Amino acid sequence: MDKITMQKLADEHPMVSVERLENIYHNLSHTLLSNISGAVVEIGCNAGGTSVFLKMIINELAPDRELHVYDSFRGLPQKSFYDTLFDEGDLAASLYEVKNNFCKWGLDLPVIHRGWFQDTLPTELPNCIAFAYLDSDFYDSILISLQHVYSRLSNNAFVLIDDYWDSDQITQDSLGLPGVKKACDVFFIDKLEKINLLPGSGNLAMGYFRKR
Ligand SMILES: C[S@@+](CC[C@H](N)C(=O)[O-])C[C@H]1O[C@@H](n2cnc3c(N)ncnc32)[C@H](O)[C@@H]1O
Question: Which domains does the chain have, with CATH numbers?
Answer without folding.
Answer: 3-210 (3.40.50.150)
